[in-house]
Amino acid sequence: MARAAEPRENTADGEDPDSAAGADGTALELLVHGVGGTTPEKMLDDPRTVRITGDGTAAVFRRIDDADAESRPGDHRGKPVPEAYVWCNLTSGNGSRALWLLLLPFMVVNLAHWMRPTTHGRRRTVRLYGLLVRLTGLTLTVLLVAAACEVALDLTAWQCAGTRACAEDHSWLGFLSPDVSGGGWWSQPGRRLALASLVPAALTGLLWYLSHRTWSTYESHEPLHRTPGTEEEAEHTALSRPGFWYGRRLVARLRAAHTAAGFLTIAAAVGTSAARHDRGPGGPALLEVLGWLLNTTLVAGAAVTVWVVCRRGRTEHRLDRELDRALVRRLPMASVAVWVLALLYAGWSRPEWHSERRLPGDMTFGGIVLVQSLLVVALGVVAHTLYRSRPHARTAMRGLAGPAVAMLACALGGVMSGGVAQRVADWLNGTGDTAVLGPPVLLTWQASVIPPLLIVVVLLVAWLTRRTTVLRRREMPAVEREYGLAARSHKPGRPRNADGAGGKDTPAPSDDDPERRDRARTRRIARTRALAALTDRAPRIVGVVCAAALLLGVGALLGATTTGKTPGAAARGTHPFVEGAADTAQALGSWLIGLGFLLFVTWGRRAYKDASARRTIGILWDVGTFWPRAAHPFAPPCYAERAVPDLTWRMETWTRATGGRLVLSGHSQGSVLAAAAAWQLSPSVRKRIALLTYGSPLERLYGRWFPAHFGPHALGSLHREVDCWRNLYRLTDPIGGPVRLPGDHGPQVDAEPFRDPLAYGRTRAHPLPAPILGHSEYQADPAFARERRRLLDRIGPEVPGQRGTG
Asked: Phi and psi dihedrals of 657, rounded to 5?
């Protein structure tokens, strides 16, 4: 079937579409690197490279000798012209990336949105799933701001500044203390709270700023303008929809709502404390009325904020350039106005008001934990309903991955909140003579459940260790067969036991015995394969940890609510073993959560100064920020909303202008970007693209954890719509794996596993021991060039090649 005529365009390099490049069939290999990043010099294996298109953040590079390859097609007959798309600066650039550590819970809850199970129809249930995740994200914002209020307002301004000993130990708080300053203007509790509220307000403003700036820097690039040919094509997967990689409208709405939620939380922490005092006996009637008006305004603002979050989800079927400007501007400004009114109300002179004990934070944190638990349970019910409509055995946790990850996000938020509160309380207490009461009881209970959770983790590690040992033993015969060692495993005159060791009358081999060295080599290869196979058991680990975290969290909430005391105090008078266990859990949990906070701050500081540490954090963002911000606007930015349009524009313009062949070659996370870009191409161009993936997590990670977008139905449609696709992997690779398409499609896509290492022992080709490569250096294998050549032979400059059967 002849290719349809395409409109004439100029190439990015100024070539004419009727140049000899199209006639002679110039081939292009567009390389996309994986996690951790690299340099164009390493990707192209040449120290001399030139940027073809792009900027300092993401760009396409070529070798200097290939810069004008389209004008010299005869120089590249039989081999493709390599191009490298480098996108690592999107996730591991300057030192400001260290601030993204603060956004870790937001990133995790955003992942839960995309883990929706595959379903057919049930649009209302799908929308309900997204709504529940967005509400869970909103509770995380409230939790983080409430933790900042706990530190600044309760621990510092209320408890420490209101205690003479603590204020004297921390001289910078002296002007806030009535005992130290002699009753200065700032010494009244309401004014202290109003001043301290600047800290959580600054945090909320920082989150808004990061979200706004990162959107302008990373995600404001519009994708290629196109219209789906048919409704059926658009429904193969949401990744093929025109507006999937442009979520400006939703992010702006959510940013406004979460910013408003942050300022309303601060206003509630300041204003309700003063209103509670004014409702007491002898309070002025005017202030009591103002307190009720403030509380009513807070409730109305919270209702509007929740309505904005619930009102609209993502728009993917079209490129939505609209922006709800009135809402985006007015809602945050209105919340700031409510906060200012709360400051003025709390700052009213109340000479008879004195700070006693702690602010009622238990009710606030208890309410947040209760709402989060109910949302996670409801999300689990909805996810299970969706999974039952279209079950698949490879789906992670039988469709409950999204609720489990949402629970993990809530747990991370709780640990961060409790960690900073506990650490600041310990710091303010100093030697213990300052009489600061400490954080709310619920945070102490949450810290106390960390040791039991660690016991669960230790048991899981022990199970994984045993499982790895079993898998290693099973893999050893397979390794021997693969390298032709089975015939050497038994020699005449050397009787063997069932475990392969020599008989009881056979002397043990010496250290220079070749068979002993062979067994050690076999053991190393088998152990590497066994460790790589543990990736497939990640759903079980996450499921057990999240279930334990949910149960322990509910237990902590019940314990704090029913007793009103810390675990150690609640256990007084019971069995000595129970008392000891409670005291140990409380002390150890407090120490661990404080240590975790210190490690968190230390690592963030190191990442700010050290580029290598920043690259390590960048690997985490490479995996976690592939998806657009659909559930939380304060999550780190989605680099794919820049990378996918970059790749799509490059492939569309080059193929239309030259008529040449193109192999889209993606390694690791780069293969995910390549698949997403291929889905965004117009059908006529997609049919002229060959896809080569290696070390790819498309099915092993993305297909299992994100089945609605990378499940068998979606990957099968990609195989049908691109001209040809080949997937390469190794058994020693812990990330990449086969695509596992059903039926006869699987052998067409998945090649036989690459041998790793290339040689078992020393050979003429490998006089030194060949390394076990695992996830890296796929191109070093001679089979890689053969597979790439096969793809080039199957596609032509004008007529798509016929599919093979193997």
From this structure: -80, -35
Query: For the chain, what is the mean pLDDT?
Result: 82
When mean pLDDT is compared across 163-172, 340-349, 672-681, the lowest value belongs to 163-172
Quote the tokens at residue 365: 């944190």
For residue 612, what pLDDT band results from cuts at 50, 70 and 90?
low
Residue 609 has a pLDDT of 65
Is-contact 375 136, C-beta < 8 A? yes
Q: Is 212 a member of any domain?
A: yes
Whether 658 and 786 share a structural domain: yes
CB atoms inside a 10 Å sphere around CB 128: 17
Which three-class secondary structure state does DSSP give residue 381? helix
Condensed to tens digits (0 to 9), the pLDDT of residues 122-164 reads 889 999 999 999 999 999 999 999 999 999 998 888 888 888 7
Any residues with CB less than 8 A from the CB of 340 and at least 6 apart, and which?
A: none
What dihedral angle (degrees, nearest 10) is formed by the CA atoms of 111, 113, 117, 122?
Answer: -170
Which residues touch 577 (CB under 8 Å, ≥6 apart)?
none
Last residue in a domain, options 299, 334, 352: 352
Residue 169 burial by Cβ neighbours in a 10 Å radius (0-12, 13-18, 19+): middle
Least confident of 158-167, 268-277, 750-759: 158-167
Q: What are phi and psi of 85, to 5 degrees?
A: -100, 115
Structure tokens at 456: 């669960």
What is the SS3 string spanning 154-212?
HHHHHHHCCCHHHHHHCHHHHHHCHHHHCCCHHHCHHHHHHHHCHHHHHHHHHHHHHHH
Sign of CA dihedral 607, 612, 618, 623: negative
Q: Is 483 a domain residue?
A: no
The reply to whether 400 falls in a domain is no
- 198 and 324 in one domain? yes
What average pLDDT does range 36-54 have in this prediction?
Answer: 89
**Cis? peptide before 645, omega within 30° of 0:** no
Question: Within this chain, do residues 660 and 780 fall inside the same structural domain, yes or no?
Answer: yes
Give the type of residue at 537. R
Question: Does residue 3 carry a pLDDT above 60?
Answer: no
- Is 513 a domain residue? no
Token couple for 590? 């407090």
- The total number of structural domains in the chain stands at 2
> Virtual CA dihedral for 791, 795, 796, 797, nearest 10 degrees?
-90
Write out the two tokens for 622.
Answer: 């490479």
Domain of 651, in residue numbers: 20-91+639-794
- CATH number of the domain bearing residue 79: 3.40.50
198-214 vs 248-278: helix axis angle to the nearest 10? Answer: 170
Q: Which two tokens stand for residue 541?
A: 């680990």
Q: Which of 738, 777, 734 is nearest to 758 (CA)?
A: 777
Q: What mean pLDDT comes out for the span 457-474?
A: 93
What percent of the chain stands above pLDDT 90? 37
Distance separating alpha carbons of residues 119 and 567, to the nearest angstrom: 45
How far apart are the C-alpha atoms of 200 and 424, rounded to whole Å?
15
Query: Which of the residue ranges 24-38, 175-189, 299-313, 382-396 would you say has the lowest mean pLDDT?
Result: 175-189
Looking at the fold, whether 76 and 202 belong to one and the same domain comes out as no
DSSP label of 49? E
**C-alpha closest to that of 418 among 438, 447, 441:** 447
Domain boundary among 352, 384, 418: 352
Instruction: Spell out the residues 6+ positions from residue 108 whose beta carbon is closer than 8 angstroms to its own.
Output: 405, 408, 409, 412, 624
> Angle CA(288)–CA(289)–CA(291) in degrees, nearest 5?
65
CA distance 552 to 545: 10
pLDDT digits (tens, 9 = 90+) for 510-526: 434 444 457 888 899 99
Range 615-632 average pLDDT: 79
pLDDT-wise least confident of 49-53, 325-329, 520-524: 325-329
